[in-house]
């Protein structure tokens, strides 16, 4: 490894700041990929500018800039025009800039365009001399990195350039893919791809670099996945379950009948737990399909066989919800099982007593949050671990739970619908059970896609539902006005974007004081988030204005309305997850999606949600429609742990990567052939660094 301080311009202080970004050596800079790119296009005529985009214009100034003051803020305004239109250019709290903007000067201005009162406005633009812009910027794609305090984008660019461009070839990795794979897939070399992902010569070189590096991630993901499955298949389980009459009686005496899918999933899970081998199974089901009762029954099965089981939930509200339901089931059937709840917010004495019950095996089923895999938790014969909303937990967290019980059976649950063919590829290291049927008695949700003019009617509808004793969610895509990139005073750059804070204020003024309105978003402290969700669950709050933090599994049967603002900004699968928060009781529920776009694509996408409640169909359509995604954005597949690869955008690479991985391991299972030495080293690196879920 090469010390960061060995690079030009990086001292001890800067090296420390880079460490906060996870960059501990010069080699790490190579794989610290840009999060986005700024495209410097040819300057446009004013008539060709589009609100909501970032553009460049070249202008000859016919008058000096002026200064206005508003609410303690200094605003420099410049009015320019050409044969195609007029444009106002504004800078906030930069009074010194007026000295530069003199009549007779010529500049290129590049900034965000918005529209206000029928006027086109460019806010906070950068200023370039025409010759400088043409020579140094036009036609370029400039990388934009994730930053931390003390690190600027320019500093990162120079640091990366010093590794990639300035005579440091020894830091670049040697090619690890065999020539045959490179030729069959049509991939450029890794070293060239790494240079082009940071400093693309043009869009074509960027696209080819992304293809190569995304293929690498997918290919290594499938190699690692198949190696893990081989490892599991060889491992005998210490916790082999045996048939038990009490379990058979419990499954037969439930107050409702399991669906065919639930019955089949339960049968497969109990067979796995009785096989003598370690179970590693994903239970995938649409929202409201009844995965949780299957998991409860599997935990009861482990308990009847003398083993403890633990259920890991992503939030305390969800953990308490599971605990209440499970203790209700145990109590109503007088089962010889004891369930306990373990969460970080518990009082010390209560937590100590719970830890004792777990340690002495007086507790059979333990439900909780991250507290379950803390060092002080000692299990006794932990035979089954259930992870709810499995993508919410990192690799190290799940590995910690595995080690707690000496390799217990593992059951992962996910409510993210994935088309079956895609699921078989992505979860190839697991066995997969799918629940697609919904339990009988669930009333289908009524869906509506409306334009912003319908908002007042929607609020009246919510008011009527609340007066009936029901509750409502109002989901916004942003927390506050300044969250929108380039937003300016009064939200001028984000016109039409509904935010949690403004919507909360609006509803508080609109609704009578006896209607409780709560607010929930990701910037709140964990304890405040839990309190806000619990208040809604308990009925202290009637309307919850929130971001998408509510999409995970919280069950509030009294909630009958889901209103989603700026619905066109969300993916179909995410909209379906949000919609799944209602329709969980015995009353008719509704999903109101507010479409603020005039685009045909948005209408087509939202019509799929309007016309179908089938999550697997919606996921397939989402996959079909998303296409290449944002051309310059680098979306993360956080669920899979990828840096660049995206299962939607790179879906055409999934099968080739899986096929090449399978063919390679069939030919050389231990990767001992000389040509595969690079893959073996890369695999070792990925495993050492806990890559991928």
What does this entry look like structurally?
By secondary structure, the chain is α/β, with parallel strands linked by helices. The chain has 22 helices and 21 strands. The strands form four sheets. It has a seven-stranded parallel β-sheet, sandwiched between helices. Helix 6 (190-198) crosses helix 7, helix 7 (203-234) crosses helix 21 and helix 8 runs antiparallel to helix 10 (291-304). The longest helix has 32 residues, at 203-234. The model is unreliable at 484-495 and 627-639 (pLDDT under 50).
What count of helical segments does DSSP give? 22
> What does the largest sheet look like?
7 strands, parallel
**Beta-strand residue percentage:** 15-25%
Terminal CA distance reads 26 Å
Overall geometry comes to globular
By secondary-structure content and strand pairing, the structural class works out as alpha/beta
Runs in which pLDDT lies below 50 for 5 or more consecutive residues are 484-495, 627-639
Oligomer: single chain
The helix content is: 25-40%
Radius of gyration: 28 Å
Kindly report the spatial arrangement of strands forming the biggest sheet: 11-12-10-13-14-9-15
**Average pLDDT, all residues:** 87
Number of strands: 21
């Amino acid at each position: 490894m090469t010390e960061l301080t060995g690079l030009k311009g990086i001292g001890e202080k800067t090296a420390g700041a880079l460490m906060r970004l996870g960059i501990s050596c010069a080699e790490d800079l190579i794989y610290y990929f840009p999060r986005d790119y700024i495209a410097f296009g040819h300057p446009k005529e004013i008539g060709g500018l589009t609100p909501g985009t970032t553009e460049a214009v070249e202008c000859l100034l016919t008058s000096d800039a002026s200064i206005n003051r508003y609410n303690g803020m200094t605003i420099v305004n410049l009015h320019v025009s050409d044969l195609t239109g007029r444009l106002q250019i504004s800078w906030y709290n930069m009074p010194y800039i007026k000295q530069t903007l003199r009549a007779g000067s010529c500049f290129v201005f590049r900034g965000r365009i918005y529209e206000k009162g029928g006027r086109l406005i460019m806010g906070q633009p950068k200023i370039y001399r025409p010759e400088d812009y043409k020579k140094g910027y036009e036609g370029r794609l400039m990388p934009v990195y994730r930053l931390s305090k003390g690190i600027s984008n320019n500093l990162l660019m120079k640091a990366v350039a010093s590794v990639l461009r300035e005579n440091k070839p020894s830091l670049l990795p040697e090619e690890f893919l065999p020539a045959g794979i490179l030729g069959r897939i049509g991939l450029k070399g890794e070293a060239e791809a790494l240079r082009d992902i940071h400093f693309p010569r043009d869009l074509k070189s960027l696209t080819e670099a992304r293809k190569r590096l995304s293929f690498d991630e997918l290919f290594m993901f499938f190699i690692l996945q198949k190696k893990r499955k081989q490892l599991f298949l060889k491992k005998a389980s210490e916790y082999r379950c045996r048939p038990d009459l009490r379990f058979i009686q419990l499954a037969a005496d439930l107050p409702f009948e399991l669906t065919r899918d639930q019955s089949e999933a339960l049968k497969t899970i109990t067979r796995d737990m009785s096989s003598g081998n370690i179970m590693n199974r994903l239970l995938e089901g649409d929202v409201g399909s009844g995965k949780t009762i299957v998991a409860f029954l599997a935990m009861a099965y482990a308990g009847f066989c003398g083993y403890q089981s633990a259920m890991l939930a992503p939030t305390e509200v969800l953990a308490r919800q599971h605990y209440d339901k499970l203790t209700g089931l145990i109590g109503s059937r007088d089962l010889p099982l004891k369930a306990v709840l373990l969460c970080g917010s518990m009082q010390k004495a209560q937590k100590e007593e719970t830890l004792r019950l777990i340690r002495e095996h007086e507790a059979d089923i333990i439900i909780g949050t991250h507290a379950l895999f803390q060092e002080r938790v000692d299990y006794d014969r932990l035979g089954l671990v259930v992870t709810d909303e499995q993508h919410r937990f990192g690799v190290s967290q799940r590995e910690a739970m595995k080690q707690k019980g000496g390799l217990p059976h593992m059951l992962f649950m996910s409510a993210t619908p994935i088309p079956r063919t895609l699921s078989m590829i992505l979860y190839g290291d697991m066995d997969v059970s799918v629940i697609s049927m919904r339990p009988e008695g669930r009333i289908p949700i009524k869906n509506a896609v409306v334009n912003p003019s319908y908002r007042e009617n929607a609020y009246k509808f919510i008011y009527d539902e609340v007066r009936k004793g029901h509750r409502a969610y109002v989901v916004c895509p942003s927390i506050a006005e300044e969250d929108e990139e380039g937003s300016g005073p009064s939200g001028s750059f984000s016109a039409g974007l509904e935010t949690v804070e403004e919507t909360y204020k609006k509803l508080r003024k609109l609704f009578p004081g006896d209607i409780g309105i709560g607010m929930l978003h990701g910037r709140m402290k964990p304890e405040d988030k839990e309190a806000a969700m619990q208040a809604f669950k308990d009925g202290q709050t009637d309307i919850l204005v929130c971001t998408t933090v509510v999409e995970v599994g919280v069950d509030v049967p009294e909630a009958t309305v889901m209103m989603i603002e700026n619905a066109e900004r969300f993916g179909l699968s995410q909209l379906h997850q949000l919609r799944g928060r209602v329709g969980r009781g015995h009353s008719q529920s509704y999903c109101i999606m507010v479409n603020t776009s005039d685009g045909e694509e948005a209408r087509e996408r939202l019509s799929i949600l309007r016309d179908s409640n089938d999550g697997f169909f919606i996921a397939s359509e989402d996959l079909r429609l998303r296409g290449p995604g944002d051309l310059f954005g680098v979306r993360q597949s956080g669920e899979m742990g990828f840096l660049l690869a995206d299962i939607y955008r790179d879906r055409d690479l999934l099968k080739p990567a899986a096929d090449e991985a399978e063919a390679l391991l069939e030919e050389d299972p231990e990767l001992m052939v000389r040509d595969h030495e690079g893959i073996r080293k890369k695999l070792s690196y990925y495993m050492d660094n806990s890559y991928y879920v």
